[in-house]
């Protein structure tokens, strides 16, 4: 059966990248989508627009190029259409769970659903039914003070049946975070359901040993023996300094992680420079990013950007959810914690304050505020 990717000319709002080139874990979105489809034995086809689908013989699946999905999501869609004997056309989405609320941001004003631009077209294509797909939820809740998040936790739950519609840099950020966290599912499945909640808590001996067992290291790396590395994929030619903590993260080839730096639950691009003592948590970076004097949380850094001691806000003090810009206007992200999106080649100087959910456009230069002395006195020569 065919599966068709359409609208590959789509460009990601704000960053301007062709959608197929945006980073998904250690590859691009386009290669990731094609790989999943071909692994399940589907004939992968690419078309420029939806109108061209009229020339295809039914039945077939199709999705818009900004949709990222797991193998398990695609399998669930195939199984649902098969149970119906391929007689009905469907649009697929995700059920609302802790996992989808955290990692699959809304793509429309109605936030009670997570409809995906992912479809099955039967011979009788006149009727389109909406179906929510569900997978087993694996719990991992990080404690949070209630004055920050009213629920008292931040959900890092994993679910193999996952998809996201990438219509802003923040959608790209959260999708990468969700797919990265899904790397834990194999470990979670080894634990009886009755013990998962107690044994999967952060910093427990079982969690530490389990995460260390899935570490992967590339060639020619230099890693200080005092560094703590748990559940990470380390690329080639990576340098990791003394007393670093790297947990459940992907570090791109050629990156430098300075002494005492902390990188947790993040996807770091190639040739990044994380300065001494810096902290990155739940962040996504393109290649060649420089960061110093964090912490930076829930944030995406564009290609060749540099951020220096910026006050990176990631909450609203009124505890309301954070709004973001998308190509469909301003939407409620439904996130209580969300940082900044820094555009490609942006440079932001020390002591700037940037509100949660804001986008710093490509090639923007924000010098330090006026109270920072940058100029020599006029009477000096």
Summarize the structure.
With 381 residues, the chain is of the alpha/beta class. It is 17% helix and 29% strand.
Description:
17% of the residues lie in helices and 29% in strands. The model has no long low-confidence stretch (mean pLDDT 93). It is globular. The chain has 381 residues and is an alpha/beta fold. A hairpin with a 2-residue loop joins strand 2 and strand 3 (27-28). An eight-stranded parallel β-sheet has the order 14-17-20-23-26-29-34-37, with no helix packed on it. Strands 4-1-5-8-7-9 form a six-stranded mixed β-sheet, with helices on one face. A five-stranded parallel β-sheet has the order 15-18-21-24-27.
User: What are the segments in which pLDDT stays under 50 over at least 5 consecutive residues?
Assistant: none
From the helix content, strand content and strand pairing, which structural class follows? Answer: alpha/beta
Mean pLDDT: 93
Report the sheet with the most strands, covering strand number, pairing sense and barrel closure.
8 strands, parallel
Number of helices, counting only DSSP H or I runs of 4 residues or more: 7
Number of strands: 37
Distance between the termini: 76 Å
Strand content: 25-35%
Q: Which term fits the overall shape? A: globular
Gyration radius, to the nearest Å?
22 Å
Query: Fraction of residues in helices?
Result: 10-25%
Within the largest sheet, what's the order of strands?
14-17-20-23-26-29-34-37
